[in-house]
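note to self: dont lose this again. the chain is below, predicted strucutre after it. 291 aa total, dont forget to put it in the shared folder this time
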Amino acid sequence: MKQSRDFDAREVAVFQKNEITEHFIYKNLSGKVSGVKNRRILSQIADDELRHYNVWKTYTRRDISPSRLKVWFYTFVSMVFGFTFGIKLMEKAEQNAHNTYNRMPGSFKEINGIIRDEEEHEQALITLLDEDRLRYTGSIVLGLNDALVELMGVLAGLTFALQNTPLVALTASITGFAAALSMASSEYLSTKSEPGGKNPLKAAIYTGFAYLLTVLVLVTPYLLFTDLYLCLGMAFAASVCIIGFFNFYISVARDLSFRSRFFEMVGLSFTVAALSFAAGYGIRLAFGIEV
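---
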């Protein structure tokens, strides 16, 4: 029996530390986000987390310091990748605490109230999804997806056709820059013609920037190394990393499935690259081109 009580005390101390940590995270974010509505909701959640901390304190009868590392980490992630992503990432990690709450003894009467509050938090957080970087997710996806599919195909074809890394890098960069401008222009006109409240210029900038950033990442190996197939392999690896990171971001921020979207984009990119690779080889043989 004593061992069970000791175990409960340790668990409660962990809960208490989590609550005070999250209190400081929400408090930090409430002073950094834009919009009165967003600040008000984050401040309310910060107050609730402090109240939860005090509930657990009645059991431990001691003060517990927050995890400074977590406070810094989630604040930093929220500032870099958007507060919606940072908060959702933290809430997903907090799900483990919900599962542990359900295993605690019934003597902890406030637990059900805490769980209800946490569920209300998640509902309140839905209203925070009014960020440019999330409202323009479609534009970013368009830029990334087109750049990955098109440029991987271009790089694969040029690698076999030209057999020269500086020439491949130059040709792919010119192609990528022109394609980025074309995609940005198309997104501008498309957004302008559709109702929805999105700014056409912002949509074009997000699309073009995502495309250019992808071009830069994929072409860089060809500027640093001379082995063609090493460069192509590194470009493939970089494309998988970009797809993985972005889909993880979207899956967290938008509560979407990661696996299906990830494999769909990887499969599409690699299929186009393989066909282009074969086309480049075939064209080189057909025309007898030697570079």
